[in-house]
Amino acid sequence: MRKTAAELIFVYDLAALLLICSLKYAKRSFCSAFSDIFGKVGSVASETVVIELLKSKCMTILYYGLEVYPLNKPHIKSIDYALTSCLKKIFCTNSQEVISECRDMFHCLPAEDVIAKRKNKFLLRFVNSGISFVMFFNMANEDLAALAN
Hints:
The protein has about 150 residues and is mainly alpha-helical. About 70% of the residues lie in helices and about 5% in strands. It has one domain.
């Protein structure tokens, strides 16, 4: 059964004042996709191949649509944890130093950096699209200013 973007991100709107985002389905889909890939090619392919498959097939599932929602530190840390868990499985280690070095070698940016880049790109497109919703425009400009710092 195919889920919509709102179902994948599982968004709640509480009285239109607060937007709460649950990443349960996104992380579940990410881990499922990674398990499928790792189960098929994990033992025969090199780490480089598995990392490239992870980046091209699985991380798009994890980051899909997150640039639209206001994410706090626990959300970002849970996304980073899901990615770190996969890297630990690929490299057969629990050492945070080894995982950090592998991230640098394979250009796997932390979730905070990836989400900031995606959000920046989204907000620039939104501001330049000419949509005249004053509230959204002001919010987008504030977020752009915050991301620029």
